[in-house]
Amino acid sequence: MNPCVLPTPLPDLDGDKRWHSIHRRFISDCREKDPDVIFLGDCIFETVQDTEAWNQYFAPLHCLNFSIRDDCTEHVLWRIENGALDNVNPKIVVLHVGTNNVRNSAEEVAEGVLANVTKIRQKLPNAYIVLPSLLPRGQQPNKLREKNANINEVVNGLTKGLYRVQTVAIDKGLIQSDGSISHHDMFDYKNLTNAGAKKILEPLYDLLSQILNENEPENDLTPSE
């Protein structure tokens, strides 16, 4: 059985139960807030919420960010099954997960992403599900970078034609002409600086804005009698 599709809580290796505490806080946010956009994912979107680019693009969009640093596909799947999307009705769910599944094949990870998409659709039948591409990682070309590219390709194929599911490439400009990634874009060659966040968030913001604007109810311009 593919471990990427088996809902599993993140093991509490540190012994402080922080992961479960964060999950419970997210559930509480669902009860108290009415977001248009929810982000579900891993370290990539957990770290970008502290950047100027995030504040510029997404703070005004009524977003909740339910990303946790070390999550793999199976951990996000567990969170969805255990309340992460209950008591809430966002217009868009942005799912970014898979880069931490370093021990699994590209096909296994892609199936894990699809399992999350399926579970989101069960919880939110009419929400748009947006899948930003997994980013390249490592200063120089390496097997994990190649695998992330393969995951993106497989996910594109698995989700093509699915109702209100859309992939979006967000990695443009991160790999330089010599194949390297600059620490000015990724401070640890995996997570993003403000400059790197701006590069990935612009195309995502454009897509989300387009979806939100297309689904705005039209104002009734009929003169009142």
UniProtKB/TrEMBL annotation:
Q: Which domain of life is it from?
A: Eukaryota
* Family annotation (InterPro entries): SGNH_hydro (IPR013830), SGNH_hydro_sf (IPR036514)
Q: Where is the SGNH hydrolase-type esterase domain?
A: 39-196
Q: Which Gene3D superfamilies match?
A: SGNH hydrolase
| A Pfam family of this chain | Lipase_GDSL_2
Family statement drawn from the similarity comment of this UniProt entry: Belongs to the 'GDSL' lipolytic enzyme family. Platelet-activating factor acetylhydrolase IB beta/gamma subunits subfamily.
- The protein in question is named SGNH hydrolase-type esterase domain-containing protein
This protein's species is: Drosophila erecta
Gene behind this protein: Dere\GG19372
